[in-house]
Every structure is written in structure tokens, then in C-alpha cells.
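I would love for you to help me understand the pair of lines that follows before we discuss the fold together.
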Amino acid sequence: MPHSSQLPGRTSTGVSGLDIVLAGGLLNRSTYLIAGAPGTGKSVLAQQIAFHQARLGNKVLFLTLLSESHEKMLVNLQGFSFFDRNLVGDRITYLSLYQDVINGGLQNFTAVAREAVLKSSAKLVIMDGVSSLRDFAGSRGDLRKSLFDFNAQLSALGCTTLLIVDDEFPVQNAPEYAISDNILRLHFNTDKKRYIRTIEIAKSRATPALPGLHYFDITNDGLMIYPFIESQLASQQFVPPPAVTKERLSFGIEGLNRMVYGGLFGSSFNVILGTPGSGKTIVSLRFIYEGVRQGRKSLILSLQHSPPQLLAISRELGFSLEQYVNDGTLRILWALPVQRYLDEVAGKLLQEIESHQPALLLIDSITELERLSLDPDRITSFWAAIINILRNKKITSIGTMELNRLGNHVLEIPEHPISLLADTMLLMRSQEADGQLKRLVSILGILSKIRGK
């Protein structure tokens, strides 16, 4: 799946994940409205795009209709890595129209703004505080005409325009919404003491922007947007994946290989269910070891053990993975499951898959990955999308899942959508017998039994 999707006639935003959401970046000569309540990150987003465009060599004109001084604005930007004071005045021109609007209203605003655009030769024009113009318009009709005329002139001059408005909710009949080709809405909420930021494309002309709410963070690098995984893979939903291959991939454990009739099918998705300490990670690491020692590129997504811990486990058990990490055959993607988003981690996984092109994949664990989801109802569609792309890339995958019960005489399979998607399921559990705790392995996968005979 491509992750750099800038297209001809478009320009990159420089914001991680936003070009994907916009289906290729900013469309040249188009007008984008960035709306949201104060504090949602609108100005940071606009400044981040401005400095990226300036680094590309483009002229940027940043018009403000706010009373805040530009010097204070620039001081607030100094903590971001994208900020470069040397670009200010040379590539980025800041101009306040606040007093022009106070003194001369809309007519003065459009005249001064038009002159500033011509003088700066800007290709990107940003107007912050556009919603304040409503207070100075005699009527909505007057505001609509002024904004429409100014916007038409900007397009004729080859400018891409960003309009920033402070609206928590869409304003009915607001002219700035009507003249905009695309509308980006930013949201900011809390959930169980966690701050949740999302962005959506509420309006999109001439571009198939990704639908849905996309989570994002504001970091030292600016906005980091995590595109909604199901939306990214929607184009593949009608592309049937190839069937599993006849090739059998060994676990490297003789008894277990016999139980699955020689090994796992190639291009299959498999799950190891088990209680804590039952050996799920050990079995799956052994499977990866068998693959890398035969030259198969492999990838591990770990949300439980850090890379040094995984290497130590394999080393202590006599099948060290370290040399395969060193020679590049094996990559380990470590994601500490704290204050992260499901799409953030899944997106990084897909990037690693694109980069490394593995034949084998281990997700340890599915349980921890799912806990990152803020919407339990999307788990089924999420796994359907992920597994579909893994099958299409002919990757043989293993995922581990936690069971809560330590010991149980009754064989129980948890109700989970992944049980319907998996080709083979191994159940590893403990059971008390004669005062001792015994470990048991059961094979639940129908595919392996039918096709293995």
C-alpha cells in the first residue's frame, strides 16, 4: 500500500498522514476551509503546511484577522521542529488585516489583501480568523460576494488557499463554507482521562478523500495524522485474495508439526490462543526462527516484549534470532501500547510490510493491539481489512491472543470475529490433573485438518 501519494496537480502538505487522507495532497488552485473549536490545532496545521511549502521554495502569504501579534505567534511556534525563523520574511510573509477591517470594513479588506497577494507572488495563501469577518459584514450577501470575488482572484493567480475559522459546529449559510472546495474539520474530546483528537474531510470536490474520523496527535513535529485503516484498504475490499498455497511451513517443533499435518499453509492467517505463560510467544518465535534460517524475510510486531526481551527469550531457548536481525532478514517493530491509537500502530505495520516485504509475520499480541481501539464495534472490519491485505501479499501470519482462564476442563473458544477469519487456530491452556498443572495444546483449525489429509 503506497504511503507517499502526492499526485500531479497537487502539492504535499508536509503533515504526516494528511496527504493520504486528502488522496494526494492539496489540489492546486483550490480553497480549503480548516474549521474547528479553539484549541483543536487549526493554526498549528496551517503553520506546518506553510513552513513545508516554504522549504519547497514556494512563496507563502499568511494573512491574519486576529488581534494577536505576529511576534507572539512566532514565539509560540518555536517549540515545533518545522519552525525556521530564517524562512520568515523571505519565503513566508505575515500580514495583519485586523486594523484594515476595523477601519474600512470588507471593502478595505479585499483591496489590501489583493494587493498583498500580488506583491508577494505567493502560491499558498492562508487566512486565519476568517469567521471574524461576519462581524463586519452588512449582510451575509455582502460577505459572500466579497469572499467569492477574492477567492476567484486567488484561483486566477494560481494560488492554493487555506481559510481558518473558529467554529465548533458548522455554521448554516456561512459564505466561507460555500466557496470552499474542501472542508477539514478538527475535533477535540476526552475519553477516560485521555485527550482524543480527530480530523475529518467534511467536503471534498474533485478528489476521493478518505472518509471517516482520523485520529491525530500534536507533537514536537506538529500534527501526526493516522489515517483510518479501513478507509485506506476500501479499494481492495472487492479484490479476492489468493487461496492458501500447498506449501507447508514448519513450526520447528516435531510434535506440533505432526498435529497440523506438516505445518501451516503458505499465505494463511493463523491464531494461537492461550493463557498467560502457556507458551504462545515461544511457539510463535520458534516458527519465525524456522523461517528466517531458511532465508524467509520476517517481521514481528510486538506490543508485549521489547526487541531485547524477544532476542533474550530466543537466545535462552537455543534458537537465537539476533543474527537475523543484524543481517536484515528479521525486523522487529516495537509498539509500547500506552496512549496510542489502533490506526497509528496498524499504519506503521503496513509501512514496514511495504518496506521489508516479509514472507512471515508475527503479531504479539492481537489482544494488546485491539485494546488500542477506541471503538470496539470496528474490530471486525479492521481485521477483515488487515487480513485481506496480508493474504494478497502472500504473507503467512501468526497472531497470539490472550485467554483469561488459567485452567478449565471444558474446551471453550472465545466469541471473536477473528475466529471466523483464521485458517488455523491453536489453543494452548493449562489444566489441573492429580494436583499438578498440565499444559495442553489443541488444534481448532478446520482448514488444516481437511486439506492436510
User: Anything to note?
Assistant: The longest strand covers residues 194-204. The two ends are 36 Å apart (CA to CA). Residues 304 and 387 are 21 Å apart (CA to CA). Confidence is low (pLDDT under 50) at residues 448-453.
